[in-house]
Specification:
There is one protein chain. The protein has 22 helices and 16 strands. It has 486 residues and is α/β, with parallel strands linked by helices. α10 runs antiparallel to α12, α10 crosses α13 and α10 crosses α15.
């Protein structure tokens, strides 16, 4: 079987407009996929060079396929399970910053270059005072970017029309703001001239972005059968879900230079991404956090199974539509459309998302994802939201155990052990308190400001409600108690 290559993909050569720090599955199945569609529709006409920003790992498979690969999106489309395959031809080359430093550095001198995309993980956007300008390349991603920008600045003699647009997708708040802060700190640390600092500040654009698509990566167990259906071998194939959203917050309007929405792509340009992040965190992530622990104790193991369970599905629907959406600020139709898309995504037959995986660090997740909705509901309506309140009792029931083993609290479902994974101080609290009488346990948990940022026993009626739900779960089981909330 022939291996994917340029001849097979029919790649057209285009000017390099994008360098991308990171060659991983997410960027290739999200950003590079979108740029490929924009190229095909005649809206962008630009190629990407992938940069490997770390020392370890090999780029051999990229070279063997001329950087051509397939994205296979699998999920529910128009109510039916579908597989949408696309050969991505937007990547022109891949470069190793350590083994090919000169080639990498020369990319900064390209007249056609305009955009820098990055996904160097949450730990990538950090200021390290030990980083050095003299290194080829510097140790950190901000260090590499600062020196890359300096090369461009000097090559073009500080021309203000040669600045670059940064599009970081790392999953941290205000990723562009944080990245620019790191670059500015390094300029100071390295004693680079004021002219360069001014150029970075005025000629370059640091956007903050929010991205949303589940990328399931290389389908190791299914690869050969997929190759058979495609008619060629592809060892850098990427799988993911059809849903996608890219929100780009920028102080300067870059929509004409990066016209992805004109190609029908789900990209939103805004001067404030916070309402979109709030929507995602409270509806998508909040739904997960509010139902998964109850669903697991009710006998389910994956999200898809939970959505096929009428009790759990109804609980989730009431949580989202009756309790979360009323507390959000975007137009109601936008919120409901997003919620419907979330439910479709949860029903994806190609994604086996384990509830125990989602349960990781549920205490801090509940604080970030569910607590604002609960407090917002109380403020708006003057009463407790039933299902979000029940989710606290479900969390406490799930976190019940008296033994910590291999950094996990051991819980039990129907006589079988499961591992509860969280910070050690959280696990120690539940080990010491989950066996106490319900009132002591509940008030100890709700009053713990380290967990919630405030004393939740001061929320009128919350302690009594959680005690009632937890007693019901203990006496009658999770499913019976949950059904009484519906």
């Amino acid at each position: 079987m022939e291996r994917m290559n340029k001849a097979l993909s029919g790649k057209k050569e285009r000017p390099v407009k994008v360098v991308q720090f990171g060659e991983g599955n997410f960027l290739r199945g999200f950003v590079d996929y979108m740029i490929d569609i924009a190229n095909e529709s005649g809206k962008f006409n630009g190629d990407i060079v992938l940069i490997k920003p770390i020392e370890f790992g090999s780029l051999d498979m990229f070279h063997e396929q001329d950087c051509q690969y397939t994205v296979s999106l699998r999920g529910i489309v128009d109510g039916e399970p579908k597989v949408l395959n696309r050969v991505v031809t937007s990547v022109a080359d891949v470069v190793d910053t350590y083994r090919e430093y000169d080639k990498y550095n020369d990319l900064a001198k390209l007249d056609t270059l305009r955009f820098v995309v990055s996904n160097t993980t949450e730990a990538g956007i950090v200021f390290n005072p030990e980083d050095k300008f003299e290194l080829n390349p510097p140790m950190t991603f901000p260090g590499k970017l600062t020196k890359f920008l300096y090369t461009r600045y000097t090559h073009f003699n500080g021309a203000m029309d040669k600045g670059l647009v940064m599009l970081p997708v790392e999953l941290i708040d205000d990723n562009g703001i944080m990245l620019k802060k790191c670059v500015m700190q390094l300029i100071e640390l390295w004693g680079l001239e004021d002219g360069f600092k001014k150029w970075v500040d005025e000629a370059c654009v640091f956007t903050s972005t929010l991205v949303d698509r589940i990328i399931t990566g290389y389908p190791k167990d299914e690869a050969e059968s997929i190759w058979e259906s495609l008619g060629y071998e592809d060892r850098i194939l990427v799988t993911g879900e059809p849903f996608a959203l890219w929100v780009i917050e920028s102080a300067k309007d870059i929509s004409r230079e990066f016209p992805l929405p004109d190609a029908g792509l789900p990209v939103i340009f805004t001067d404030d991404q916070k309402p979109y992040k709030q929507r995602k965190v409270r509806i998508l992530n909040g739904a997960h956090t509010s139902f998964v622990l109850a669903s697991y104790l009710a006998g389910n193991d994956i999200v898809l199974e939970s959505m096929q369970d009428d009790d759990i599905r109804n609980f989730m629907m009431k949580t989202i539509f009756d309790e979360v959406i009323p507390t959000l600020t975007l137009p109601e139709k936008e919120l409901k459309d997003f919620a419907e898309a979330v439910i479709t995504r949860f029903n994806n037959p190609y994604v086996k998302h384990a509830l125990l995986s989602i349960s990781l660090n549920s205490v801090s997740k509940w604080r970030a994802r569910c607590l604002p909705s609960l407090l917002g509901y109380v403020e708006k309506y003057g009463k407790l939201p039933v299902h979000l309140t029940f989710s606290i009792a479900a969390l406490m029931a799930f976190y019940t155990g008296n033994e910590i083993r291999e950094k996990a609290l051991i819980g039990h479902r129907n006589g079988e052990e499961y591992k509860i994974m969280d910070d050690m101080q959280v696990l120690e609290f539940f080990k010491e308190n989950s066996g106490k009488d319900t009132r002591t346990f509940v008030e100890g948990y709700l009053s713990n400001e380290a967990f919630h940022g405030q004393d939740l026993t001061k929320v009128a009626g919350l302690s009594d409600a959680v005690c009632g739900y937890l007693d019901d779960i203990k006496a009658n089981g999770m499913r019976a108690a949950l059904c009484r909330t519906l």
